[in-house]
Amino acid sequence: MTEVEISPEIRQWALKNAECSRDEIRDNHSWVGQGGNPTVPQLKKFSKAAGLPVHYMLLETPPNWPRLPPDVHDFRGKKSDKRPSSNLLDTLYSCQHRQDWYRSYLEASEQEELPFVGSASCDDSVVDVASKIRHTLGFAFEKQAKCKTWEEALRTFAKCARDTGVLVMVNGVVENDPHRTLDPGEFRGFALSDRVAPLIFINGADSKSAQMFTLAHELAHLWLGGGGTGISNADMLDRAHGYNKVEKWCDQVAAELLVPTKEIKGEKRSDDLTAQIKTLTRRFKVSSLVILRRLRDTGAIGREEFTSAYREELALSSERLAKTKKASGGNIYPTINQRVDENFARALILSTSAGETLFMEALRLFGLKKVATLESYAKTLGLKL
Question: Is the pLDDT higher at 288 or at 171?
Fold first, then answer.
């Protein structure tokens, strides 16, 4: 079988930038470090495992690895020391493409700009901004508290955001590829600010309670406008000690939005902190980490107790998330609604049906391969292609 010659410089670059471990490379792709040349199937197998495009491996010298677009900030703090993965970049680019299409669609319909985008600054009162977000969305605390599960609370919260004109896309993989899972440790979500078609992406591989906070956090970014456009990774312990002004402010707004000060202050302090955290997470439908942050904010617990409990809860949360079994199979159509936003989906199907958008473009925007799948999905929305 024909072998492909790989330059020494590219081998070193691949070893440095591969998204798989050195052990995996040694055990399954030994040619990378040992100097032999791979066959075409071997090269493709490594490229997929490493998250490195095949055509990059064929170059003589290392390429300029894709970075975040200049208008998208990296708010991940310490996490940003490592370059964005191909999974993160591909997810960002696909969302930007969808946003560009949706903006053009709305502008053609003479859609007015959304007044809340860019209406706040980090100097504004956290309580006031959270109140304005809650009022704009119609997401009163009473509505949040009535939700029986985290899933119901998240669906309700996301629908309120969508009803205001915000695209909310939730996905735990790149497009529809189950082999490319998004890592919550790398990023929790991002906001793409736009006065006509603002977009929020939430990492669906994260827990439901964490997704609640991410949505609230990214809404705060939209209220900041262009300066708030960027990638987020909730790490409240570090930001509680004062780093990253924008992220800290968005965290505070999100916490106030989901766990209002007047509500958390009304809770009686319990000697059993663990039991109290469980009670409050069920009531407010947020993670134990957020509850701890709010107890610290309101003075119910001190800094040392907060830090110790936060680290313990962070470890437990990571364990619970790792043990969570991802559902597979089932009905694909509700999943599409979450991954691309139902409002976006309806607009794209109507445009395609009217001949304004080509089927190939529609499939690419949906991340689908077959027209038959798109036609069946359209029927679930009461539409016809």
Answer: 171
Tell me if 133 sits within 8 A of 223, measured CB to CB.
Answer: yes
Cα–Cα distances (Å) from 26 to 11, 21, 41, in that order, read 13, 9, 17
**pLDDT, tens digit, 9 for 90 and up, residues 168-187:** 999 999 988 888 889 888 89
Task: Report the SS3 class of residue 177.
Answer: strand
Q: What pLDDT band is residue 82 in, cutting at 50, 70 and 90?
A: low
Q: Which of helix, strand or coil describes residue 147?
A: coil
Tokens of 284: 């407010």
Same domain, 212 and 184: yes
Within this chain, do residues 101 and 181 fall inside the same structural domain, yes or no? yes
What are the b/e assignments for 39-73, b being 16+ CB within 10 Å?
eeebbeebbebbbbeeebbeeeeeeeeeebeeebb
Of residues 196 and 34, more confidently modeled: 196
Instruction: Tell me the sheet residues that pair with 167.
Output: 199
> What does the block give as tokens for 111?
């859609």
Sheet of 73-74: strands edge to edge?
A: 73-74, 230-232, 189-192, 199-203, 167-171
- pTM listed for this prediction: 0.84
**Counted domains in the chain:** 3
Helix (H) or strand (E) holding 200: strand 199-203
Query: Which residues lie closer than 8 Å to 377 by C-beta, 6 or more apart?
Result: 332, 333, 336, 345, 349, 366, 368
DSSP string, 242-287: T--HHHHHHHHHHHHHHS-HHHHHTSPP-S-HHHHHHHHHHHHTS-
**Which amino acid belongs to residue 385?**
L
Q: Are residues 371 and 301 in the same domain?
A: no
Is 87 in the same domain as 201?
A: yes
Q: Which amino acid makes up residue 227?
A: G
Judged by DSSP in three states, 289 sits in: helix
Same structural domain, 47 and 92: no
pLDDT band at 240 (very low <50, low <70, confident <90, very high): very low
- In the numeric block, which tokens belong to residue 208? 């439901």
Residue 263 and residue 296 in one domain: yes
> What is the identity of the amino acid at 193?
S
Q: What is the pLDDT of residues 293-333, one digit of tens each?
A: 888 888 888 888 888 888 887 777 767 766 665 544 456 77
Same domain, 82 and 38: no
Q: Are residues 36 and 129 in the same domain?
A: no
Domain of residue 360 covers: 332-380
Nearest to 211, CA basis, from 238, 244, 234: 234
